Amino acid sequence: MSNPRDVEARYARLADAVEAGDYLVVDGSVDVRPDYRPGRPRKGDAGGETRPLAVRLTDADRQRLADYAERTGRPMSAVVRAAIDEYLGRHPAA
Q: What are the chain's domains?
């Protein structure tokens, strides 16, 4: 179990960051996708067995990926999987 003081310190840092304008605060209600579940996807949720794959990206490409994922509300790994699927669908090996 987390130390209550650590949790309080994390909340205090978050509150400071919000007050400093580091986060976009949305007034009112927010729509949450009906398929949203917190945490990591369960094994098999991606349509089959998944295994990690390390990919090197430039800082600029990683930022573009992170920005796109944030705008679409999807995890970066889901965006990468969709991009690979789309690319390979358009460029089949001869």
A: 44-94 (1.10.1220)
